[in-house]
Amino acid sequence: MKRFFILLGCLLGLQLQAQSVVELNGQRTIRDYDGLGVLVSYGKLLYDYPMPQRDQIMDYLFRPNYGANLQILKVELGYDGNNTAMSWPSHRRTLEEENNFERGFSWWYMKEAKKRNPEIILSALHWGYPAWAVTDEQKADFVVDYVEGAYKVHGLRIDYIGGNQNESTITPEVTKLIRRKLDEKGFSDVQIIAADEGARVKEFKVLDMLANDPAYADAVDVIGVHYKSRPASFMPPKAHTLGKRLWSSEDGGGGYTTASQGGGWIRQLMKLLLDVRMTGVVRWLATASIYDNMPWP
Asked: Exactly one of 102, 167, 184, 197 is catalytic; which is it?
């Protein structure tokens, strides 16, 4: 035992004597940080909360330098279909109907976030298409109309839009049409995220599709994947050769009923941002404002 302590003391002495020089260069950027955000997937009950509690919750989520201090707000682009536990209303329900951008409470949610932080990034993604959207052209129109309606009716500029249906078959042709139609309508600054592949995929098909289809690559700005709480090795090296930013466009899940769960989320963030080299993370979900007897409350 005595020899052990002598050896340990020698090692500590050597360690203390060793000098390290760390050079900091504030002018050198490795990669941009797009932000940390949340996805409003349920949340309907929050809209009905009494005041001032409702405002206090929104302050805690979106006020800068206060509470969660979130930089990204992602909402569902409703299509009147199931999103796991509820549905969000569609802005167009039939081919004959005019667009209606007053339905639902996501507009209120985005305005409240913007009121607290005018710089917050707005993102939207569709979990499906209404029954009338059958062709690629109709599907693209459904998405682009949402972006246009958000701006013209509510004064909300959507910064990122999903180019693919949530956790579904990848559809490059629809994404290309969305890009073309956005440009034609004056929304060339709106960036497209693809392909929001789900947690169960073993390989990201979108990577090969981007590499092999230049037109598809031109249409996509950010590669978005879901629920990848794994070592950095889960992201193939080719993901970092395509010139695209990487987001965990849906992550997290579960609750914060214990302090260890909160610590687990912090570790997950560090892994995604530092080890996996992602630049944006969006957590599902913003609040647990749903009845306890619903799936995933």
From this structure: 167
